[in-house]
Amino acid sequence: MQCIPLSIEMPEMVRVNEKELKILLATKLYEMEMLSLGQAAKVAGLSKRAFIEVMGQYGVSLFSMSVDELQQDITNA
Q1: What is the distance between the alpha carbons of residues 25 and 45, in angstroms, rounded to a whole number?
Q2: Is 13 inside a domain boundary?
Q3: Is 2 contained in some domain?
Q4: Would 72 be classed as within a structural domain?
Q5: Is the dihedral of CA 13, 17, 20, 23 positive or negative?
Q6: What pLDDT, on a 0 to 100 scale, did the predictor assign at position 52?
Q7: Contacts of 39 (CB under 8 A, 6+ apart)
Q8: CA-to-CA distance for 52 and 62, rounded, in angstroms?
Q9: pLDDT of residue 29
């Protein structure tokens, strides 16, 4: 994966450091299925294992299917 530099201007009242901003961006892009787990971990600057743990803290599921979708998939199997 080739990466490009990104510069963002944030209002002073938003108290977020660069590391947290990278994690927020990576978790959202993973949640939107725009990045794989490995790619998102790289954007966040974390190992895959650490990124999985952080996703839980941010309320992002490792699985893209909802419980209802998973139950329906099992029923149709």
Answers
A1: 11
A2: no
A3: no
A4: yes
A5: positive
A6: 92
A7: 1, 30
A8: 7
A9: 93
Residues 6+ apart with CB under 8 A from 68: none
pLDDT tens for the chain, 77 residues long, are 788 888 888 888 888 888 999 999 999 999 898 999 999 999 999 999 999 999 988 888 777 666 776 677 678 76
Closest by CA to 25, choosing from 51, 52, 43, 7, is 43
Residue 27, class by beta-carbon neighbours within 10 Å (0-12 exposed, 13-18 middle, 19+ buried)? buried
Residue 4 domain flag: no
* Cα distance between residue 69 and residue 37, in whole Å: 21
* 9-15 LR contacts (CB < 8 Å, sep 24+): none
Domain count of the chain?
1
